[in-house]
Amino acid sequence: MGLTYLAENYQAAGAAQQSSMQAAADALLAINNAFNPLYESVFAISVLILSLVMLKSVYHKIIAYLGILTAISAFAALILWPLLDIGYLWWWAIFMIWFVAVGWKLFLLGKKQH
């Protein structure tokens, strides 16, 4: 959203304003592209904890094990991140499959209640 605004107004701006808009766009890109292994690690731990709880709940064991695989994949990707750079994002594909499976099960549980 912010980059769109800056891009739309860049051409109409004068030279001094263009340089400020360019600096603002660079700052926005830096924020959006920031990578912090701590956030990814905490996220992976939360998926692991949720999946371990799912092993003893109404969730299918496959969904729980997929979550455990997701957490392990996240940690493997974080370890390989210095070598892969943005290529470490492959684990998010596994996360999305797990997330959809969890959501689908919640949807089905909600339908049973009515």
Strand content: under 5%
Helix/strand structural class: mainly alpha
Elements, N to C (H/E): HHHHH
End-to-end Cα distance, whole Å, is 40 Å
Put the structure in a nutshell.
The chain has 114 residues and is mainly α.
How would you characterize the overall build of this protein?
The chain is an all-alpha fold. It has two domains: 2-32, no CATH class; 37-113. Helix content is 81%, strand content 0%. It has five helices and no strands. α3 packs antiparallel against α4. The two termini are 40 Å apart. The mean pLDDT is 82.
Using brief descriptors, characterize the structure shown:
2 domains, 5 helices, mainly alpha, 81% helix, 114 residues
Give the helices and strands, then pairings.
Elements: H1 2-10, H2 15-32, H3 37-54, H4 61-84, H5 91-113
Helix pairs in contact: 1-2, 3-4, 4-5
